[in-house]
Write a structure and sequence with these properties.
Helix content is about 30%, strand content about 30%. The chain has helices at about 40-50, 120-140, 160-170, 185-190, 200, 225-230, 255-260, 275-285, 290-295, 305-315, and strands at about 1-10, 15-20, 30-40, 65-75, 85, 100-105, 110, 150-155, 175-180, 195-200, 215-220, 235-240, 265, 300, 320-325.
Length: about 325
């Protein structure tokens, strides 16, 4: 017997409750994992509150990532006792996820825990941190080095943004952080931001081209803010876009791309190949400072998830939140 947060739908409304289940209730996948930690992401918030059409079938155990220990395995790639990480692959949306003491997972969805990392650190990083690392790697691959100038990070107080600020600062980049809350300024400076910008200013509609300000950018917001970042990006700069918290539209023109050679690079962590995931997870050991995780992570139990989900959708959550299913 074990506990899990279960989502059900009644008359079009999503209801969540902590339920006691048996192992036989889990999907029949090859690897049984005892979950040590999951984390709370914006997508989890949408799923638990029913705000977005994230969940494809009910009942559903949400939680788009998890870290834990293999208890049983029918796969030759994993043995009992292996420490593993799972992020993405539509888990928590189409397949039962990490807000549970146990989960059954396809082996091809798993990554072995890097040596020197544990479950708490992995989930402090989580999907958000993995995405942030992939964004930084995208900037590096396009030649955006620290000597090129300032990199702007939008939604900087959120999960992806806060980890991106910390990684970029650790690597020697000058970072400008966009946030809508003055209360986060000290927090972001502690992560390494040297310049703070208001969300109101950066969400103002931009002309096709604005004054060049950024060597590169990591955008978690989309819509008019992404359009402004593109219009302000330097010649041959790159913007890595990974989110749409502010909207899915992009009200811009081709002018930044053809007159300034700006590159817009999409970044996806859900279906990211395992070899790239493994590289990113190993880099997170060295490129994300330990003290940043100490500032970023808060820990809640399963019964706390519904309120935390509502808070993250409302923009009230600062940084990373861990979910301990055994708490």
């Amino acid at each position: 017997m074990f506990n899990a947060l279960v989502l059900e739908q009644e008359e079009g409304k999503t209801l969540s409750s902590v339920k006691t289940l048996e192992l036989s209730d889990l999907p029949d996948e090859e690897v049984l994992v005892e979950v040590s930690y999951s984390s709370l992401n914006y997508k989890d918030g949408l799923a638990v509150t029913g705000t977005g059409k994230i969940v494809h079938k009910f009942p559903m155990v949400p939680g788009i990532d998890l870290a834990g220990v293999v208890k049983e395995s029918r796969s030759p790639d994993y043995q009992p006792g292996d420490q593993v990480i799972m992020t993405g692959w539509s888990v928590g949306e189409r397949y039962w996820g990490g807000y549970s003491q146990y989960a059954r997972i396809k082996p091809e969805w798993l990554v072995k825990m890097p040596e020197g990392m544990d479950a708490a650190k992995a989930m402090s990083i989580g999907t958000a941190g993995l995405t942030a690392m992939l964004c930084v790697m995208a900037l590096e691959e396009s030649g955006i080095t620290p000597d090129r100038g300032t990199v702007v990070v939008t939604g900087a107080a959120g999960g992806v943004g806060s980890v991106a600020v910390a990684i970029l600062s650790q690597l020697g980049y000058t970072v400008a952080a966009v946030t809508g809350r003055e209360s986060t300024h000290e927090y972001l400076r502690g992560l390494g931001a040297s310049e703070l910008l208001s969300r109101t200013e950066m969400a103002e509609p931009a002309r096709p081209l604005e004054k060049q300000r950024w060597a590169g950018g990591i955008d978690t917001v989309g819509d008019t803010m992404l359009a402004r970042v593109l219009a302000e990006t330097d010649y041959r700069g790159t913007v890595a876009a990974c989110g749409l918290a502010g909207g899915y539209k992009l009200p811009t023109t081709v002018m930044p791309f053809i007159l300034r050679n700006v590159r817009l690079q999409g970044v996806d962590s859900v279906m990211c190949p395992v070899d790239i995931r493994t590289t990113a997870w190993n880099r997170l050991l060295t490129d994300l400072p330990d003290n940043a995780l100490g500032e970023i992570a808060n820990v809640i139990g399963l019964s706390d998830v519904p309120q935390a989900a509502a808070d993250i959708v409302a923009g009230k959550i600062q940084g990373r939140t861990l979910v301990d299913p055994n708490k």
